[in-house]
Structures are given as structure tokens and as C-alpha cells.
Specification:
The protein is 49% helix and 11% strand. The chain has 27 helices and 16 strands. The strands form four sheets. Strands 3-2-6-7-1-8 form a six-stranded parallel β-sheet.
Length: 680
């Protein structure tokens, strides 16, 4: 492989725009970079590191660049290599902490680092069993997420009840805070008994060692003298504590983030460290990256407009993007009759884009919940369009990929003089690859797409670096360890959360209706503000083509009661909407209610029992019936017919307060029993 020439400081700076150059020139002291979507933040910070090395300010081996995904870390290392800079450590918080923990464990604790449990479910299930808690698979999943939230938020079992109440997290999986606090404690006992740790423990243990062992802290601080942290808006209290211990009393820290892309607060992430950085470091310059090189003016304008409507919930740290690309097509808005029609329509539009020359790998369908993907998978398959679901089986875990890597490693020892593209095609043809994709869909097509991704990667490496087969094998091994998969030729299906950090030529934002975006469970102002940011993230994934759609009804032939997301009020083109409820006649309201019961497959008898209970409750507390529960909530209950509080808590209109006040009574009504109104 051709080794890139060492970087030239002046040439590096000349390749940047004015704002990016300001980042690259600020080599010492604390610095805060507020970087909007598509503004080249990765370019700015990699050039900053390269400039520091070229200027003699940095020794590459003393720089630690921290990212939030293995993919981002791999991309950063690749960019630095292309700039002629090797030796810089670009890792996730967990990867960096695990490397340090493995090194220091024998001398600080003794023996080997305990085995890391990849999944918490078995341990959560055992802890729940010890406490006599009745849990199913969904409850275990919710409890595992709550354990992670508590640990990354540095919340102990003793503090959990207060912290969960303060954060509005009561009633997780249908259990009260005291029970979950006990679970947190017993979960730790289970891990101790099994001699295992979880992923959060990697950070917690390293924090403990650094805080208690000055000699270890001194060693780490001598090794790493300059820190760069990307996606700083997603830092958790635990990660921030680890970063503080890495730094000690030094201030060689550059943070990069965007408050408008804070979408992981449910995991314990918080943007407050980004938004208050200037308070912590008053001397730190704040550099804004606002030139958007990713998206057309039409996409950028919509993204800015969505944020502008956030009002008082818009962070002062949010930047307004300035489009740098030429004009493109206007954003498209479509209201379909039902979910099936939406899936079919999106697949048809994707086919038109592919036929016009847009690669399938440059098209994404993004949705709020993973449950929405099935209909779009079926529609794309019916249209003969390949796809991959992001968040499914990892690329390097697929059998055909593992087998191909073994074959390539063997060939690397004997085909040194064969050009890389030819060598890879020769090897993978024997593994089932062909120049043209198979006509069959499903597993056969997915297998071909995996192998073809390796072929395309070989072509790219040969063109950009003059790579040979041994270089490709080394690249694949590094990518496998970082789970940095090459591009697979198929339309991407992904949740909005999973799409963070990615971009495509064409993006379909589907299901953009109230109840999905914002999702019905978002009841507080803060939660709704985060849902708005989630829409912003989705919009800014698109480079050129952006399609927004929703379905008026769930089922074919159902009455269209859904409306577009409130975040798009004033932006969605004017369409015919039903007369507001308050203006309907009594007969019209009855018709609408009957339609809602039918559309949601709700049991009319259960609904009537619920309505009678609501009337009695409203009379008892001397308030209008709608203040107890709305009709739409009664319909949802009659459709779901929950048997446990945790199931009830998932329904729209049932927040923690309603759950505590009426939960047991509602479950009694659903069962056909007489509720205890005296409990009101």
C-alpha cells in the first residue's frame, strides 16, 4: 500500500473553510466546537489533529480521540491515515476504558478481568427471580434499560427512588421505584456470584481505579496529553466522570457537538456538558460550524424551520445551518390512505429513484419505531428491491463474510502480484459471487450483496491507496474489530435513532404523524422537544431527495383519523382535514367514535364499561370526564385490554400520574370487575 506523505501544515489549513480552519488552528487549551449537521465536523477535527502533528505540537501517540460508535472511530482512524498521521488512538469510551482496564487490572486488582456479559437479560431474569418478581421478555428488556440508565447516570440503589421520580421514570415495566431499587442491588449480587461484569462496569471500574490510584492516573495522563471528544451532546455523567479523571487538572480538551441532535436522553445522555462548557472553561473559544455541505438548500431550509418552531425549548447552543450545495428538488409530502398504501407508495418511489440512477445503497427509509419496518420490508421485496435492516445481524458475523475473509487471508499469501480488484473477484467467485446480482430475493440476494460489498471495498482501497490483497485483509480485520461494515447495495431500513451519524442521497421519512412523531409516550415538554430533535436528525440525513409521508388510517378501508406531525404545522402543504371535534354535531361525534373503535379493533363492550367508570369517577372528583381520560385513551385501552400496569403504561394518554391514580381501577374494569372508586 502506498504510504501517504507526512502532512504539510499550510496545505492542511488551505483545504478547510474559514470556520473549519479556526478549529484546526486552535491546538491548545480548551475549545468548544458547535457543529451543525453536515458541516464537516469530522473533517475539522481530523485536520486539527493532523495540523497539530505537522506543527510539532502533538505527538500522535499522546492524542486520544473519543467517539460514540466503533464505526465513527474506524472512520476517524482511516481519515487520519489518509492524511499521513498514524499512531493516534481513536476509540469509543468503552473501548478506551477496556484497554486501560485490561492493562491495569493485574497490578491493581489481581488476576484477569472478569468476563463481560454481552447481554443483561439472563442476569436481570435471575435477579428478578430472587426477588419474586413476575417478569416476561418485554419486562426484562425494560428493566435492563433501566439498570443501564441508573449506572451511566451514577445513581445508586439508595438514590434510585428520588432520581427516578425527578426524571419522570416511575412505573418502569409496571414496577414501583422501591422494587426496581432492590433489583439494582440484587443484580449486582448476581454478577458477583457469577464472576462477570457488564459494559457499564468497564467504565465504573476504570473510574474507581483512576480515582483511588494516583500512580495509575499519573501513568494514563502521561500517555494521553490531548483529548478530542466527538458528539459531546451525548455524554453521560459516567463518561464525563471518566473524561475528567483522564484529564486531571489539565485543559487540553476539544469537544465537538450539536445540541439539536440530542436524542439519547432516555439512555442517560445529556447535552448539559456541551451547553455549559463555557461556564466550566470560561477561557475556551466557541467555534460555530454552520456551512452545511451535505444537504441541498431545500433540505436545510426545512431542517432549520422545524427547529425554529421549538420556541423556548430550542437550545441557545443550536446553530442555524447555511446550505452550500446547489439547489435540488423540493421536499415531497404525501398523505396515504392507510399503512399498506404508504409502504407500497414508498417502494414505488424508491424504484423510480433507482431507475433514475440513484444507487439503492444511497436510499433510506427511516421510521420512529422498529415495529414499522415489516410493512416496508414486504413492499420493497414485492417491488424487487434489495434492502437491509440496520440493527439486524452484524455484517462481519454473517457466515458468508467470515468464510470470505478466511479465503482472502489464504490468497494473500500467494497472490502478491495480482491487482487487488482482480484478485478479490477471483477469490470470491469461488465463494458464490458473480458480476450480476441473482434474480432471486431473500437470503440468496443478501448473500450476494455481502460478498459484493467486499468487492466494492477492494475497488475503493485500490483506487484511493493502491492497496494490495494483504492490505485489504488487514483492513477487514480492523473493520471487523470495530464493526465498521462496508456499504451493502440495498435500501436501508432504520429507526431514526439508528440513523444518527449516517447520510444518504435520498431519505423517506415515514409515519410522520402525531402518535408516532412525537410518539404517544412523550408526555412532558422535554420529551416532546426531544422528539422534535429526532425529526430534525431524520431530515438532515438527506443529501438531495427528501420524502415525508404518513398514513391517515392503520387498516385498508379504515377511517382516516390520523394527521401529520404537529412539528410540521405550517410546513406541510394544505390538505383537507376533518372538522375539529368541537364543531361536530353530536351525531358526527358518535360516528367518529364508532369509526375509531373499528379502526383500532377495540372491544365496544370494554369501551362502554370504561366510559361508565370514567363518568362515575368524574362525578366523584367533580371534574369534567375528559380530565380523567380522553375518549382516544379509552379506545386504546379497549383495543389493548392490558392485564398488567406495565402494559397499561405503554398506552397513549397514560402517564405516571394517571397510572398511579387510576391504574388498578382500569385493569379491574377491563377484567369485567367492579372497580374500587373509594381509591380515588
Amino acid at each position: 500500500m502506498t504510504t501517504p506523505a507526512p502532512p504539510d501544515a499550510d496545505a492542511l489549513l488551505a483545504a478547510l473553510d474559514e470556520d473549519q480552519r479556526a478549529v484546526a488552528e486552535q491546538l491548545t487549551g480548551p475549545v468548544c466546537v458547535l457543529a451543525g449537521a453536515g458541516t464537516g465536523k469530522t473533517r475539522a477535527i481530523t485536520y486539527r489533529i493532523a495540523h497539530g502533528v505537522a506543527a510539532g505540537v502533538y505527538n500522535p501517540t499522546t492524542v486520544l480521540a473519543v467517539t460514540f460508535t466503533a464505526r465513527a472511530a474506524g472512520e476517524m482512524r482511516s481519515r487520519l491515515r489518509d492524511l499521513g498521521v498514524g499512531g493516534v488512538q481513536a476509540r469509543t469510551f468503552h473501548a478506551a476504558a477496556l484497554r486501560q482496564l485490561s492493562y491495569f487490572w493485574p497490578t491493581t486488582i489481581g488476576g484477569n478481568v472478569p468476563r463481560i456479559m454481552e447481554h443483561k437479560a439472563p442476569l436481570i431474569g435471575e435477579a428478578a427471580g430472587r426477588l419474586g418478581m413476575s417478569v416476561d421478555r418485554l419486562a426484562i428488556r425494560d428493566l435492563a434499560a433501566e439498570v443501564e440508565w441508573a449506572k451511566v447516570s451514577l445513581i445508586t440503589p439508595d438514590d434510585y427512588a428520588r432520581a427516578s421520580a425527578r426524571s419522570g421514570r416511575e412505573g418502569v415495566a409496571g414496577f414501583d421505584a422501591t422494587t426496581i431499587a432492590r433489583l439494582l442491588s440484587v443484580y449486582e449480587d448476581v454478577k458477583t456470584d457469577r464472576h462477570v461484569i457488564d459494559f457499564e462496569d468497564v467504565l465504573l471500574l476504570m473510574v474507581g481505579i483512576l480515582a483511588e490510584r494516583d500512580d495509575v492516573a499519573d501513568t494514563v495522563r502521561r500517555q494521553y496529553r490531548h483529548f478530542v471528544v466527538d458528539e459531546f451532546q451525548d455524554v453521560s455523567p459516567l463518561q464525563h466522570r471518566l473524561l475528567s479523571l483522564w484529564l486531571g487538572d489539565r485543559k487540553e480538551l476539544c469537544v465537538v457537538g450539536d445540541a439539536a441532535q440530542t436524542i439519547y436522553s432516555f439512555t442517560g445522555a445529556t447535552s448539559r456538558y456541551l451547553t455549559t462548557f463555557s461556564r466550566s472553561y470560561p477561557e475556551a473559544p466557541v467555534i460555530h460550524l454552520v456551512r452545511d455541505y451535505r444537504s441541498t438548500p431545500q433540505v436545510v431550509s426545512l431542517a432549520n424551520a422545524v427547529l425554529a418552531r421549538a420556541g423556548r425549548h430550542r437550545s441557545a447552543s443550536t446553530v442555524e445551518l447555511q446550505a452550500q450545495r446547489p439547489s435540488g428538488p423540493a421536499a415531497a409530502y404525501t398523505a396515504y390512505d392507510d399503512d399498506q398504501a404508504e409502504a407500497t407508495g414508498v417502494a414505488a418511489q424508491a424504484r423510480r429513484l433507482i431507475d433514475s440512477g440513484v444507487p439503492a445503497s444511497e436510499i433510506a427509509v427511516l421510521y420512529r419505531t422498529n415495529a414499522q419496518s415489516e410493512g416496508f420490508e414486504q413492499a420493497l421485496s414485492a417491488a424487487g428491491i434489495g434492502y437491509l435492516v440496520r440493527g439486524g445481524e452484524r455484517f462481519f458475523s454473517r457466515k458468508e463474510v467470515k468464510d470470505a475473509v478466511v479465503l482472502l487471508r489464504g490468497a494473500a499469501r500467494s497472490q502478491a502480484d495480482v491487482p487487488l480488484p482482480d484478485a478479490v473477484r477471483d477469490v470470491l467467485t469461488g465463494a458464490g459471487w458473480a458480476p450480476e446480482p441473482p434474480a432471486a430475493r431473500g437470503a440468496v440476494r443478501e448473500r450476494w450483496e455481502s460478498l459484493n460489498a467486499l468487492v466494492q471495498l477492494a475497488d475503493d482501497l485500490h483506487a484511493s491507496r493502491g492497496a494490495q490483497l494483504p492490505d485489504l485483509v488487514a483492513e477487514l480485520l480492523e473493520r471487523a474489530s470495530a464493526q465498521h461494515a462496508p456499504t451493502v447495495d440495498g435500501v436501508t431500513l432504520a429507526s431514526l435513532h439508528a440513523a444518527k451519524g449516517l447520510e444518504w442521497d435520498a431519505v423517506f421519512l415515514v409515519g410522520v404523524s402525531d402518535g408516532l412523531l412525537p410518539i404517544s409516550m412523550a408526555e412532558t415538554d422535554e420529551a416532546i422537544a426531544e422528539e422534535r430533535r429526532l425529526l430534525y436528525v431524520g431530515i438532515t440525513r438527506a443529501r438531495e431527495h427528501l420524502h415525508l409521508s404518513y398514513a391517515r388510517a392503520r387498516n385498508v378501508g379504515g377511517r382516516g383519523t390520523r394527521r401529520h406531525s404537529r412539528f410540521l404545522d405550517g410546513l406541510w402543504p394544505v390538505e383537507h382535514t376533518p372538522t375539529p371535534q368541537r364543531r361536530r354535531s353530536r351525531a358526527g361525534r358518535a360516528d367518529a367514535l364508532a369509526a375509531a373503535l373499528t379502526d383500532n379493533d377495540a372491544d365496544p363492550e370494554v369501551f362502554e364499561r370504561l366510559r361508565a367508570w370514567r363518568a362515575a369517577t368524574a362525578q366523584q372528583i367533580d371534574k369534567p370526564a375528559f380530565t380523567v381520560l380522553h375518549d382516544s385513551t379509552l379506545v386504546a385501552i379497549a383495543a389493548a385490554q392490558p392485564t398488567q400496569l406495565r402494559q397499561l403504561a405503554l398506552l397513549r394518554g397514560i402517564g405516571p400520574t394517571k397510572l398511579e391514580a387510576y391504574g388498578p381501577q382500569i385493569l379491574a374494569v377491563v377484567r369485567g370487575e367492579e372497580p374500587d372508586l373509594a381509591a380515588n
